Amino acid sequence: MITKRIIPCLDVRNGRVVKGVRFESLNDVSDPVSLAKRYSDEGADELVFYDITASYEDRKLFTDVLRSVAETIFIPLTVGGGINSLDDFDRVLKCGADKVSVNSGAIRNPDLIAKAAKRYGSQCVVLSADVKRVNGAFHVFAKGGREDTGMDALKWIRSGVENGAGEIVLNSIDTDGVKKGFDLEMLNAVTAIVDVPVIASGGAGCAEDFVTLFREAPGVDAGLAASILHFGEVQIPELKQILADNNINVRQI
């Protein structure tokens, strides 16, 4: 039985963890280093670190904060934001990342996925897709969810996997921060067309939402969350116990 993963997400802006609703109205939450250590100690399976304004501001990811986070934790770390070249991959990996997440950079340069997979291996390349419904269709958005590319999300994700992406983070803009559950329709549509791990992002409001996620979208490998973990609404050990009680296989501390 595949072990399902619980992954906290740190959305970082100007060196601080922030959180909003549907990628807007960002509010300050905490220091990323202390929050990362807490999650590592509590039994998170992995950690995702996004410099969420790097692409929009057309700059490189802040590596000083990233290095401090990487030195503090003992779980796999995925890092994204402002990843536009192989040099960016190299820089982030040297700061302690285990995997690198690409989004806007891959939209601008689709060859980046294939080149990175060839150099570092597919297991290192994560395609993060910010997706929103537009007139009933799933569209890919760029620059932190600010720009509708007009691209069909399912075709884009499938091509990313064909080019070498070893994992997908599916960010539903429609459900982000709303806390009413994961976007099961979108997730099932994606898991039906790819054969790599898919991480669900956007919508977690309570522990039961994770139970529903893994039961009703069985192809999903991991659930990512921010608000409910940052503010202590759900504790990771408690969440994992609830999942285990519902016969969902998780790694215990």
Describe the structure concisely.
The protein has 253 residues and is α/β, with parallel strands linked by helices. The chain has helices spanning 32-42, 63-72, 86-94, 104-108, 111-120, 153-162, 184-191, 207-216, 227-230, 236-245; strands at 5-13, 16-21, 24-30, 47-51, 77-80, 99-102, 125-134, 137-142, 147-152, 167-172, 198-201, 222-225.
How are the SSEs ordered, and which strands pair?
Elements: E1 5-13, E2 16-21, E3 24-30, H1 32-42, E4 47-51, H2 63-72, E5 77-80, H3 86-94, E6 99-102, H4 104-108, H5 111-120, E7 125-134, E8 137-142, E9 147-152, H6 153-162, E10 167-172, H7 184-191, E11 198-201, H8 207-216, E12 222-225, H9 227-230, H10 236-245
Parallel strand pairs: 1-4, 1-12, 4-5, 5-6, 6-7, 7-10, 10-11, 11-12
Antiparallel strand pairs: 1-2, 2-3, 7-8, 8-9
Question: What is the CATH H-level superfamily?
Answer: Aldolase class I
Number of beta-strand segments: 12
Roughly what is the average pLDDT, rounded to an integer?
91
**Terminus-to-terminus distance:** 18 Å
CATH architectural group: Alpha-Beta Barrel
Please tell me what the overall shape is: globular
- The neighbouring-strand order within the major sheet is 1-4-5-6-7-10-11-12
SSE class: alpha/beta
Low-confidence stretches: none
CATH topology (level 3) name: TIM Barrel
Helical fraction equals 25-40%
CATH class: Alpha Beta
Sheet with most strands: 8 strands, parallel, barrel
Number of helices: 10
Would you mind describing this structure in some detail?
It is a single chain. The chain is 34% helix and 28% strand. The chain has 253 residues and is α/β, with parallel strands linked by helices. It has an eight-stranded parallel barrel with strand order 1-4-5-6-7-10-11-12, surrounded by six helices. Strand 2 (16-21) and strand 3 form a beta hairpin. Helix 8 (207-216) crosses helix 10 (236-245). The longest helix has 11 residues, at 32-42.
